[in-house]
């Protein structure tokens, strides 16, 4: 019972600290921060695949499959968001950078 409360305490502390740190990141650093988090999500995905590979009971297989599914979605979604953020930094002039002299 104590282990559950300790795990909940650590989770709540990590969530609070993560929110406070991310809330103070300047806008210009969001793109590199998102790229770094995509790297971490890739590691989480590999861990979920390893856990799924060692699963034996149907419950473990289900939890592992959900972990792989959520990890893959999180990593792919992170790259989509990063791509959108990088689009904001591109020039909005038509033909910019293509050698047009019009």
UniProtKB/TrEMBL annotation:
Catalytic activity: NAD(+) + NADPH + H(+)(in) = NADH + NADP(+) + H(+)(out)
Keywords (A to Z) from UniProt: Cell inner membrane, Cell membrane, Kinase, Membrane, NAD, NADP, Pyruvate, Transferase, Translocase, Transmembrane, Transmembrane helix
One protein family per Pfam: PNTB_4TM
Protein name, entry field: proton-translocating NAD(P)(+) transhydrogenase
GO cellular component: plasma membrane
EC number: 7.1.1.1
Species this protein is from: Rhodanobacter fulvus Jip2
GO biological process: NADPH regeneration
Membrane topology designation: Multi-pass membrane protein
GO molecular function: kinase activity; NADP binding; proton-translocating NAD(P)+ transhydrogenase activity
This protein's record includes keyword Phosphoprotein: no
NAD(P) transhydrogenase alpha subunit C-terminal domain: residues covered: 8-90
Parts of the chain that traverse the membrane: 6-27, 39-55, 61-81
Localization: Cell inner membrane
InterPro entries according to UniProt: NADP_transhyd_a_C
Enzyme type, top EC level: translocase
Function: The transhydrogenation between NADH and NADP is coupled to respiration and ATP hydrolysis and functions as a proton pump across the membrane.
